[in-house]
Amino acid sequence: MGVITTGRGGIxxxxxxxxxxxxxxxxxxxxxxxxxxxxxxxxxxxxFISAESQDINLRRDEASFHELFAHKRVHGExxxxxxxxxxxxxxQWNCVEWANEQGLLADLAQFYDAAEHMLAPDFxxxxxxxxxxxxxxxxxxxxxxx
Length: 146
Known about the structure:
alpha+beta, five-stranded antiparallel β-sheet, disordered C terminus
């Protein structure tokens, strides 16, 4: 469902539910967290996307993502993402190309009914630089800056 990890710090994850909300959290036991999220609450877990944290202080990594997406916070650890927010998530982990190769971007674009140009190879190449980038959207136009 996400990146397989073996790190000492644990993982930071974004869990997408069928109501469109995304939970950003952290765990040291990915399988148990997926099981918990799948069986608790009224909404179906659609995607569990994770990345290895290199920080021994896992909560600090998690807090940085909460801060990055604070403007999208609905309640607690739940955020109202759109497709552009997923691009930002993947760019922070430097794995936009990986997400595209895995079909995650296409799936997410379909879920959010994103404009086709958001999956254009030239656009994804600009997003997939070696360093995280800022992605800003205004309606259906996007600007990528690094």
